[in-house]
Write a structure and sequence with these properties.
Distance between the termini: 56 Å
Structural class: alpha+beta
Largest sheet: 3 strands, antiparallel
Shape: globular
Number of helices: 5
Helix content: 40-55%
Radius of gyration: 18 Å
Strand content: 15-25%
Number of strands: 3
Strand order of the largest sheet: 1-3-2
């Protein structure tokens, strides 16, 4: 599916950008310009960026660890991209406080 392929390329570009540059808060035009500096994007207009990211909100969060919000105020629209910490690994009982590291090492 060509659309899924385009979205995958775009989401990877967003992931790499946020990983390297940190959180982003700005317009689709600003984000499009920054992403385009790094690589050729599968889209040609900033408004297509929002159209592709909006339905991929859960994919960005679950698969890439990025929280995406699209905010629209009366005078401007802003995109917010923020890294989120990965969920705790359920197999590590020490992280959940179920075992004491000092007791388990004796």
């Amino acid at each position: 599916n060509r659309k899924a392929e385009k979205r995958s390329v775009l989401l990877t570009a967003v992931y790499e950008f946020v990983t390297e540059q940190g959180d982003f808060h700005g317009s689709a035009t600003e984000l499009f310009a920054l992403l385009s500096q790094k690589q050729e994007l599968p889209i040609k207009q900033p408004n297509a960026l929002s159209r592709m990211l909006n339905p991929a909100t859960s994919i960005l969060e679950q698969d890439y660890g990025i929280r995406y919000r699209n905010e629209s105020t009366g005078e401007a629209r802003k995109i917010h991209l923020e890294r989120i910490p990965p969920p705790n690994d359920d197999s590590d009982d020490t992280a959940k406080g179920l075992t004491s590291p000092s007791l388990s090492s004796q």
